[in-house]
Design goal:
By secondary structure, the chain is an alpha+beta fold. The chain folds into five domains: about 180 residues, Galactose-binding domain-like (Jelly Rolls), CATH 2.60.120.260; about 110 residues, Sandwich (Immunoglobulin-like), CATH 2.60.40.10; about 240 residues, TIM Barrel (Alpha-Beta Barrel), CATH 3.20.20.80; about 100 residues, Immunoglobulin-like, CATH 2.60.40; about 80 residues, Immunoglobulins (Immunoglobulin-like), CATH 2.60.40.10. The protein contains 16 helices and 45 strands. A hairpin with a 2-residue loop joins strand 8 and strand 9. Helix 14 packs parallel to helix 15. The chain starts with about 30 loop residues before the first strand and ends in a 7-residue tail after the last helix.
């Protein structure tokens, strides 16, 4: 493979026989925050100055409104045009109302960022400008001289500027070309290739969803979106560190003496020739390993192997602990003078994707440390349309929400970004597996230059940066690009042009094999296991590999989730509105209706509102009241996904995973997310929390049992699950009509299916009867008819509220049958959070909700009719009686 293109100085790739290895943002070095003063570094060790101060923004060309002058506006780095203009009060928030359409001119303009910084010569002889993220098409000039050009948001760029710096004040300018006009022009130069958007996002290496998506806002911004540094060094620096981890023996709990081994591959860039030494030290959990290797003059790489006896294994959450080990790498002269240092954390574990054919087809099973793991996951998109605003704390909040929803995997979707180091560090710490897409989604991509060189350099950059993380378990070549070529008619429209297959079959797996050996790779999602890829075969075959399910939602109602038993469900979902407080913050329509202008702007799916209605009316009537409409659509979203998840988990081990579309949103919008654009949990979140629990009891229709219904006991826990499964058929008034008891003992990480007895599943009055199952603290219910056809009555509830410190305890007792009881606590206070929702109560049963609330919230509001909601509210004319 050839070297990458896009503006890196040739000295950045000292060995042209290897793949290009851009510098990593992981380097921990002497750090100078000020961009105005350059300090002398100690000895000869590399120093970094963050150039984050004194920036201004100017519009260079394009359709700037006549009423607006944009010249030398104060700017932030990292940042982008939209957020800088908002901070200056020049534009409104694009997330509100229909401001998105008012601001489309921004993406059609050229922009320039400018700053000055002081520098004076020191004892270092090399000085590099390092951009960790430029969005996207940029020309960089230092003191008027061209430094380089870039055209890839997903790369790190390093430029040798030792000949361009002057003693005293230096001027740095970064000029960005319009991403909209550039993408349009490149689409012509590269040749038309089909995609799913109104902009040719596939012609530019920029976050695809910045041009809008069926849940995303069209912003197409520009800016220096990740940090920028001036690095000064002498003699030699560390260009890249790649710890390749392996574990031998003892791969399960209780096994003795697992041996951990890490081979640390180090790439060096040299300023002058001479011998060097690479020292590596590993510490953690009572272990220490040290090794030094010599690197002769003229050599630019080294490998250091460290062994850790009795190593502690890293496990995904709910399977074990997440021990991490610290690694430090130093490069020195033979006399011991240090020049550079790298620090990072690693974990010891093995990962294998089992695709060995069996009686059902081709499985898609993640095996961690020798143990098959049922994947409980969600797809992850950028958490903000302006990703430079995402902090470590915000990532921590989202990952904590994933944990609270009982997830163990996040799939970083290919239409977004390669996330910041904080995201992967937090996943390492919390045991959240990461499935990482390369940045290709829903389109055909040219394999010609200059795009091909950009793709190669981008892949090398990000694989090298991320491969140290134990949470990362899979590299995936693309999202829907192989399936879509045939399913969407793209092959015919291409008329013989390249479309990216060579990336997915050859280039990307070769990068992974060289830079991250041992990590699993798949060409696309969905993927049915063909290698080489057979375009005549259905890439979305449920019996083979991973599957995406979008017939349900687009054309079919959610009970049809039960029609298919995939080996692994990598994408599926159902739309619903954001929480009420998020919705009303973002949309000021008066009156607010499902079709009012702001609601239409914040609904990006094709025929989205029609699909919401079509998917609701089979189950409950369509409400005319906006409050009820919001609750109905929220309930339906939660119920649809819960039905799907319980179905998929009930087919363990034939099905070994479900990755819901999607966990999060990037702005306030009606979407498939469980957590809305303001970070609030929707009812869907709580449905997933229930369906992803370690232990799940569910009642499922089964063609293979005589009575047609079965109770399935799913035990994804290290302990066996034993007890009496109590089955009852009840009238809605609580009268017990029939009962049965079955003793069960389900082994750890196993599933048991129990056929329901004939007497329990034979209703006399289907519209007023329910089957209730109980096993320890777990319960499940089966209703014989749709809610709108049932005898469900207005909910009668006895409610009391008590408070202690920052928590309100809402105790609810049902007088009659109440289905899917929920507390929409954000209506009381936007920062309030409840511990659970979607609870069924039989007559006389009680439950207590625990609500974390700010001190200025009114706890009495927790029993308001628009806060304490149930399914009963949607099928009866009377409101709830309390």
């Amino acid at each position: 493979m050839g070297g990458g293109r896009g503006g890196n100085h040739p000295g950045d790739h000292p060995d042209p026989g290897r793949l290009p290895l851009p510098a990593t943002p992981h380097l921990q070095r002497t750090h100078i925050r000020s961009s105005q003063v350059t300090h002398h570094p100690p000895a000869k060790i590399l120093s970094r100055s963050e150039l984050s101060e004194g920036w201004t923004l100017s519009a260079v060309s394009g359709p700037v409104p006549e009423s607006m002058t944009i010249r030398d506006v104060p700017a932030r780095v990292p940042g982008c045009v939209h957020t800088d203009l908002m901070a200056a009060g020049l534009i409104p928030d694009p997330f509100l109302d229909d401001n998105e359409s008012l601001l489309q001119w921004i993406g059609k303009c050229d922009w320039e960022y400018r700053t000055t910084f002081r520098w004076r010569p020191g004892e270092h002889d090399r000085h590099d400008l390092v951009f960790h993220g430029l969005d996207t098409v940029a020309e960089i000039r230092l003191n008027g001289a061209l430094v380089g050009n870039t055209a890839n948001m997903h790369r790190t760029y390093r430029f040798d500027v030792r000949g361009g710096l002057v003693s005293g004040e230096n001027e740095l300018r970064v000029r960005f070309s319009s991403p909209v006009r550039y993408a349009d022009a490149q689409s012509l130069r590269l040749g038309y290739r089909p995609q799913v958007n109104h902009h040719p996002f596939n012609a530019i290496r920029k976050m695809a969803c910045s041009f809008g998506w069926d849940w995303g806002i069209d912003t197409a911004s520009s800016g220096i979106w990740r940090p920028l540094h001036l690095e000064s060094w002498s003699t030699v620096r560390i260009a890249q560190v790649r710890p390749v981890v392996d574990v031998e023996a003892g791969l399960d709990h209780g096994a003795s003496s697992p041996l951990g081994r890490v081979t640390i591959e180090v790439d060096l860039e040299r300023g002058i020739s001479g011998d060097a030494c690479v020292d590596a030290v590993l510490t953690g959990h009572g272990s220490q390993a040290v090794e030094t290797v010599s690197v002769a003059a003229g050599e630019s790489s080294a490998a250091v192997t460290l062994e850790v006896p009795d190593v502690r294994l890293w496990w995904p959450r709910s399977h074990g602990d997440q021990p991490l080990y610290d690694v430090e790498v130093r490069v020195t002269t033979p006399e011991g003078e240090e020049h550079d240092r790298w620090n990072g954390r690693i974990g010891f574990r093995t990962v294998r994707l089992d695709t060995t054919p069996d009686e059902h087809g081709t499985p898609f099973t993640f095996v961690i440390n020798g143990r098959p793991v049922w994947i409980r996951g969600a797809n992850w998109i950028p958490d903000d349309a302006f990703p430079q605003r995402i902090t470590r704390e915000r990532h921590a909040d989202r990952i904590a929400q994933a944990e609270a929803a009982n997830m163990n995997l996040l799939r970083v979707w290919g239409g977004g970004i390669y996330e910041s180091d904080d995201f992967y560090d937090l996943c390492d710490e919390r045991g959240i597996l990461v499935w990482q897409d390369f940045a290709f989604a829903c389109a055909a991509y040219s394999e010609n230059e200059p795009l091909r060189g950009e793709v190669e350099a981008e892949a090398c950059d990000n694989v090298s940066r991320l491969m140290r993380h134990p949470a990362l378990v899979l590299w995936n070549g693309s999202n829907e690009n192989i399936w879509g070529m045939r399913a969407w008619g793209f092959l015919k429209r291409l008329d013989g042009k390249s479309w990216g297959l060579d990336y997915y079959e050859r280039l990307l797996p070769a990068v992974v094999a060289e830079l991250d050996p041992g990590r699993e790779y798949t060409p696309s999602s969905p993927w049915s296991g063909d290698s080489p890829i057979d375009m005549d075969r259905d890439a979305n075959d449920p019996d083979h590999g991973s599957m995406h399910s979008w017939e349900v939602w687009n054309r079919q109602d959610w009970p049809h989730y039960r029609d298919t038993v995939p080996r692994f469900m990598a994408e599926f979902g159902w739309q619903g509105p954001p929480t009420w407080s998020t919705l009303t913050r973002a949309i000021g329509d008066d009156p607010l209706t499902p079709e009012s202008p702001g609601m239409q702007t914040h609904q990006k799916a094709m025929e989205g509102n029609n699909k919401l209605t079509d998917g609701l009316v089979s189950h409950v009537p369509l409400p005319d009241d906006m409050d009820d409409w919001h609750w109905a659509m929220s309930w339906n979203q939660a119920t649809a996904v819960r039905v799907a998840l319980e179905h998929l988990r009930s087919w363990t081990p034939r099905c070994m995973g479900a990755v819901v579309w999607q966990l999060n949103d990037c702005w306030p919008v009606t979407s498939w997310a469980a957590v809305d654009g303001d970070g609030r949990r929707k009812p869907l979140f709580y449905a997933m929390q229930h369906a992803f629990a370690d232990r799940l009891l569910t009642i499922q229709p089964r063609d293979g049992v005589d009575t047609g219904l079965a109770a399935v006991v799913v035990n994804d826990d290290d302990r066996s699950w034993s007890g009496d499964l109590v089955l009852r058929r009840l009238d809605f008034d609580g009268t017990e009509l029939d009962t049965a008891k079955v003793s069960v003992c389900v082994a750890a990480r196993a599933t048991d299916t129990v056929e329901l007895p004939e007497n329990v599943v034979s209703p006399r009055n289907p519209s007023r009867e329910v089957v209730a199952a109980h096993l320890d603290e777990s319960s499940a219910a089966w209703y014989f008819v749709e809610p709108r056809e049932s005898g469900l009555e207005a909910a009668e509830l006895n409610v009391s509220v008590s408070t202690a410190e920052d928590t309100a305890h809402v105790h609810v007792t049902a007088v009659n049958l109440v289905r899917d009881l929920a507390l929409l606590v954000d209506r009381v206070h936007p920062e309030a959070v409840v511990d659970r929702m979607m609870v069924d109560l039989l007559p006389g049963e009680s439950t207590t909700f625990h609500v974390r609330m700010p001190s200025d919230a009114d706890p009495d509001m927790l029993s308001d009719r628009n806060v304490l909601r149930s399914l009963n509210d949607l099928v009866t004319e009377e409101g709830p009686a309390r």
